[in-house]
Amino acid sequence: MRIVIAEDDLLLREGLALLLRAEGLDVVATAGDPAGFLTAVDDHRPDIAIVDVRMPPTHTDEGIVAAVEARRRLPGLAVLVLSAYVEQAFATDLLAHGSARLGYMLKERVGRVEEFLAALHRVADGGTAIDPEIVAQLLSRSRPDNRLERLSPRERDVLALMAEGLGNAAIAERLFVTDGAVHKHIRSIFAKLDLAPTDGTDRRVAAVLQYLEDGDRRSA
């Protein structure tokens, strides 16, 4: 796995590189600004990029803009975006163009090495990883017109784990239920959220992303 890291904090950037190399992963380049990141993508054509949301010069959304541009230049590039705190609008901007090979994680997750590495590999392998905290904030909202309120507590648990990118077997193990029970809950979730019943990855992620987008529009 060839990795490019874009992070303006030198200590975090070098710490990430050290961590990943210690795991036997190939960090081919690091950058401290969007321009350097895009040059590294062009030069090294990595499998995955780890990108900070807030980068110079304004420290607003430069990382998201650079990540979208990197995927335009290198179709199929996997991107794992890191943020210091939950920024749902930025997550939606990135994921609006498709959810495959994309992740959005809080920086604090890096300290939980196994979780971070699992998310990194899941995204590199073509999946999606949305930080559990983002999902938790979404599911904690209470609006009378929110279709999420149609879901039972167990279905909400399943949806949260789907958003993290877990498959049926992993969800079953986490919730101590059978694979068949998980499949039944997923069918019910799709029906209640007005999504065609299927176990396809994009449809699973759409069940959460649809409501990230709805939440952003309602809070605008």
Features:
about 220 residues; alpha/beta; Rossmann fold; Arc Repressor Mutant, subunit A; 6-stranded parallel β-sheet; 10 helices; 6 strands; about 55% helix; disordered C terminus; DNA-binding; transcription regulation; WalR-like
What's the topology here?
Blueprint: E1 2-6, H1 10-22, E2 26-31, H2 34-44, E3 48-52, H3 62-73, E4 78-83, H4 88-95, E5 102-106, H5 113-124, E6 128-130, H6 132-140, H7 153-163, H8 168-175, H9 179-192, H10 201-219
Parallel strand pairs: 1-2, 1-3, 3-4, 4-5, 5-6
Helix pairs in contact: 2-3, 3-4, 4-10, 6-7, 7-9, 7-10, 8-9
3D structure, described in words:
The protein has helices at residues 10-22, 34-44, 62-73, 88-95, 113-124, 132-140, 153-163, 168-175, 179-192, 201-219, and strands spanning 2-6, 26-31, 48-52, 78-83, 102-106, 128-130. It is of the alpha/beta class and 220 residues long. It folds into two domains: 2-130, 3-Layer(aba) Sandwich (Rossmann fold), CATH 3.40.50.2300; 135-219, Arc Repressor Mutant, subunit A (Orthogonal Bundle), CATH 1.10.10.10. The longest helix has 19 residues, at 201-219. It is globular and about 45 Å long. Residues 144-215 form the HTH luxR-type domain. Pfam families: GerE, Response_reg. Residues 2-122 form the Response regulatory domain.
